[in-house]
Amino acid sequence: MNNVFVICETEEGKVADISLELMTKGRSLANDLKCKLEAVVLGHNLKGLENELYPYGADEVYIGDDKRLDPYTTLPHTAVIVELFKETKPQIALLGASTFGRDLGPRISSALQSGLTADCTALEIGDHFVKKENKEYKDLLYQIRPAFGGNIVATIINPDHRPQMATVREGVMKMEVFDKSYEGKLNTLDIDKYLKPEDMVVKVIERHMEKSKVNIKNSSIIVAGGYGMGSKENFDILYELADSIGAEVGASRAAVDAGYADHERQIGQTGVTVRPKLYIACGISGQIQHTAGMEESAMVIAVNNDPGAPINKIADYVITGEVMEVIPKMVKYYKQNTK
Amino acid sequence: MGLNIIVLAKQVPDTRNVGKDAMKADGTVNRAALAAIFNPEDLNALEQALRLKNRYKGTSITILTMGPGRAADIIREGLYRGADKGYLLTDRAFAGSDTLATSYAISHAIRKIEDVDLIIAGRQAIDGDTAQVGPQVAEKLGLPQLTYAEEVISAEKKKLVVKRRLERGVETVECPLPAVITVNSSAPACRPRNAKLVMKYKHAKTITERQNESEDYIDLTADRPYLNIEEWSVNDIDVDSKWLGLSGSPTKVKKIENIVFQAKETKHITSSNEEINDLMKELIANHTIG
Hints:
The structure holds two protein chains of two kinds. By secondary structure, chain A is α/β, with parallel strands linked by helices. Chain A has eight helices and 18 strands. Chain A folds into two domains: 4-200, Rossmann fold; 221-338, Rossmann fold (3-Layer(aba) Sandwich), CATH 3.40.50.1220. In chain A, helix 2 links the parallel strand 4 (37-43) and strand 5 (60-65). In chain A, helix 3 packs across helix 4 and helix 5 runs parallel beside helix 8 (323-338). Chain A is globular, with a radius of gyration of 22 Å. Chain B has a single domain (4-243), classed as HUPs (Rossmann fold, 3-Layer(aba) Sandwich), CATH 3.40.50. Chain B is globular, with a radius of gyration of 23 Å. Chain B starts with a strand and ends in a 5-residue tail after the last helix. In chain B, 47% of the residues are buried. Chains A and B meet through helix 3, helix 4, strand 7, strand 9 and strand 10 of A and helix 3, helix 4, strand 7, strand 9 and strand 13 of B. Strand 13 (203-209) of chain A pairs antiparallel with strand 9 (169-176) of chain B, so a sheet runs across the interface.
């Protein structure tokens, strides 16, 4: 009762990175609150998965292993988790802001009448005082997220409803083993108890999953382009620079929206969060939406024709000039100096 | 067999161009200060509906939106592109609603519309990016939801087949109608306005708008009922006001901040050959690259 809960997802038979990142965060929240950390995994052929969760500090792991839960469809997963939450009454529930979590989270929150905050970039415990009612709330979950196109940062709370639900994008939280020999308890869910025939109306006829071709999250150097690149064709020089220096190409949301780059390259609050050792921002103005996803880069080089671009404030090097002129020079002089 | 489709659309502030004065003290958005547009993914949703209308004779498309009076603009925009009818859900009691309170109101408005086969919405709105209202409406109506849709493949014999675009792949799913679909921006863009429809619907108005117009327009609507955009307040849908607006919203905004970047020690470089050459040498020397 009153614990922190992580709704886990699986990828290729393992607990997904995003879920382990949330376990890491969940463990630290549970420590602050002096409560337990619980996790639920639903799917099929999940034997032994609990052992992947214990090292992240899971006190209780609930596993629902049933062929009706794989592949994922919304209704049976909702049915199980809503009932499980009615039984276990968590105070906080976290999900990945993945296609899984963004499909399942709102459905659960609607069924439980609890609030849900999407795409949080930070989660903290804090108090809240309502002057009008002279009422103090202790130990609420502060759900912090850029809002309104990334122009502001908002702290959201759910004072009166439980669980306090939040989704977080992959890569935002760090993934860290809590204790290699941590021991939790396994609870096997009797799925028949939770599912009704009407939960099974959606059928997956066909499914093609592919491994992501782009791996910007784990790349140590990123060359990212923004709307200032001007066109999809102009992005080619970023690929050229990336190829020569061993980098991956990322993009701002504005560039993705404009069709300059694929969605999977998007960096920022609604994309991926990255922490490379070098981030080269080309034609990116630097709205919070974007910088939220890259500000922990060890070194930032900003290439921009606007000397007043916000990105310059977090850059170690600012090159003021036209990207289409500067980038080819970077390629040229890199090659010259490494020959 | 024709379908009765509701397209959920939202008028949103164009968040790509926001000034600092756009937020009110209570943390809600001062929409009046911003250009208002048809939420981009709701246009993708409308296009899917229009394609079904082209395919299945007798299909009718109703745009349902919740917002202030001027949100009637996006209903007209929908009519210009081929929708048949519009409902504007507007009331001060809705102000300050979070996604859950919004879904509550919208789901009750949908219940008032008879024989709905399909509800199509954009995946998310650009002012909040939450992607929550679609699934929350589906849950409140007890309907299946198919999110991240890229294409409605078919909707025949009470069976819906949809292609979904997920992070790492695509999936084709089927479910019985009625159902709720949310559409991705990767779906085809919406067709432009149709000149004939613009002529037909340019005087389509809500009752509030007509009251501010000359009497001619009122007569016009009596002759041509399709020019009436239905306007619904809290009293027109069967709701309990405690579930609406701020009181019906579990999530509250505690604090809003403008982030001030911490000033770093920044080196400024021009685009001259010498300076870029020096920079690349330095990056190679300190093993940042290479």
